[in-house]
Amino acid sequence: MKSLSWAWILGWLLIGVVTGLAAWHGFPSLAPLNSHGPLIADQPPGTEWGLRCQQALAADRPQQALENCDRALALNENNLTYRLNRGVARYRLGEYLGAFQDADQVLTLAPQDHRAYYNRGLAQVAMHNFAAAIQDFDQAAKLSADSESLAEIYDDRGLAKLMAAQPAAAIQDFDRALALNPQDVRTWFNRGCACHQMGQVGAALANFNRVLQLDPDHARTYLNRGLLRRSLGDLRGGEADLLESAHWAQVQGQQDLHHYILTVLNQWQRATVSWG
Length: 276
What we know:
Layout: H1 48-58, H2 62-75, H3 80-92, H4 96-109, H5 114-126, H6 130-143, H7 147-163, H8 167-180, H9 185-197, H10 201-214, H11 219-231, H12 235-251, H13 255-275
Helix pairs in contact: 1-2, 1-3, 2-3, 3-4, 3-5, 4-5, 5-6, 5-7, 6-7, 7-8, 7-9, 8-9, 9-10, 10-11, 11-12, 12-13
């Protein structure tokens, strides 16, 4: 599966990849990880502009990709490759409605294309149309025979269900994804967030511990585990995890996340002083 990562702007999620948790008021909802991104059509484009569009997407230059796809579609407006890839470019630029429209047009021309259902589902999630997104992911799962694709579809359908406050159903999808790809860090992380939403703190911790076994440098997992540990009264453990999270966020260039973690740590320290 060829995909590109891009961020959703969802007010209750982490800053950096997504917007930030509010100031510390008790224990906030844990933030799941967003999708790896929409699927890029990988068949050879038929024109120079189509090829340039594909190359620009691979190089993470969505504006250039959009301009090249527009030129390619001006020559052949019904080419599925160009339209699907233009939707990817639009999504990466935050033009979610345009991304939805491009995927929708592909389905008008090719109603069995699982990539278009998947990409349209991601656009629906970005626009907070979670029920419609779940329906699109349902169709994508029915039409896809590739286990790698299915694992991502199940993960993103689970994420849509989690955002729609259906954590039990989300966990079922995360389990389906893990049965196909048991090493997927994002799925374990999101499963931990779903367990927390259900009040299953022990299970949430176990999932975050599994993430850190697979990826010991995962900054946001240290953050979430630290928040959980502090909520259970393990003040030193919570602080240690947040310090580790801050370290890896800084090393990995996640400056917004690093700033957020330092803000939480400062709030904890002020609270400790005032209690003392």
